[in-house]
Design goal:
291 residues, 2 domains, 14 helices, 0% strand
Length: 291
């Protein structure tokens, strides 16, 4: 018999707090607009971050509901709270709806444009969870859209112009990470790939290699051009090597070490990648302050 304590723990696991790190994209506009020393802007950005955490957790639960039968047949995913029966579908649905109501309610109260962005984020994730994640190319495009909307939400909440470079670079970077994850899944799952994730039946290693080459090149070019045209150029160009190293390191982890299937764990646990990210962030902030 499931106790209330076990059900609550299962619901907390279903929120996937480890994946909240993806929402740090919200702070990009805060940093590059040089408003990171303004308390009001920082607090608004932090609230937007929390709202994206709430809304993303809602979509994670809905995604698990959509995949419930498939997850029960998968030895690894069968241990998830919903698939294992620790949390009932009705309990999960109620939790997802409560999170959605709270997230959208607070966001529209805080800023109508932020509410609109979060609404679009939630709807796009619904399309992803209940159909488009099984459509080749569209699946990674919607993942990238989620990251772009996080970046736009971060700009909207502090009332700064949305930089086209911010949107473009975020999109290419998100596509790179999503495609790299698909490749890692395809390699690691092998013959079982199509069963574990149906969309993988439409991908081949050669196709993914080609797409990854396009987006990693586009990411480096777009960020370099942004740095070159930045009001803080040429100093901002000093941050480009950190970006290149981070991308190459992630490719190394995917290709050589066989990692990449768990994006969040790789980004948080690989020490060289974490150090590169910290150095990039510190150098950007230093340049924005002193140059």
């Amino acid at each position: 018999m499931r106790s209330k304590k076990h059900v609550l723990f299962g619901l907390l696991r279903s929120l996937r707090p480890k994946d909240w790190v993806k929402n740090v994209v919200v702070f990009v506009a805060l940093v590059f607009s040089s408003k990171f020393l303004d308390f009001t802007s920082v607090s608004q950005s932090f609230i937007a971050f929390l709202l994206f955490c709430i809304m993303s957790s809602s979509t994670y639960i809905l995604n698990d509901l959509a995949d419930l039968e498939e997850d029960r047949k998968n030895p690894k995913k069968a241990k998830r709270p919903l698939a294992s029966g620790l949390v009932s579908p009705m309990q999960a649905l109620c939790a997802a709806l409560c999170l959605t109501v709270v997230g959208l309610g607070v966001s529209f109260w805080l800023d109508k444009l932020l509410g609109a962005v979060l609404s679009l984020y939630w709807v796009s994730n619904l399309f992803y969870s209940f159909g488009l994640k099984r459509v080749v190319i569209m699946d990674v495009m919607l993942i990238a859209l989620g990251f772009v909307l996080r970046a736009i939400g971060g700009a909207v909440v502090i009332h700064v112009d949305i930089s086209p470079w911010l949107v473009i670079t975020t999109m290419f970077l998100a596509l790179f990470l999503a495609l790299s994850k698909r490749k890692a899944e395809l390699i690691q799952l092998k013959e079982e790939a199509g069963q574990a994730r149906p969309v993988l039946r439409g991908y081949t290693k050669a196709l993914l290699d080609s797409l990854i080459l396009v987006v990693i090149t586009s990411t480096i070019v777009s960020y370099t051009l942004y740095s070159f045209h930045s009001p803080h150029s040429p100093h901002m160009l000093w941050t480009v090597p950190f970006v290149i190293y981070g991308l190459f390191r992630y490719m190394y982890l995917t290709e050589v070490k066989g990692l990449g299937e768990q994006l969040t764990e790789v980004l948080l646990k690989d020490r060289p990648l974490v150090i590169a990210g910290l150095l990039w962030g510190l150098s950007v902030i230093a340049i924005l302050i002193y140059f």
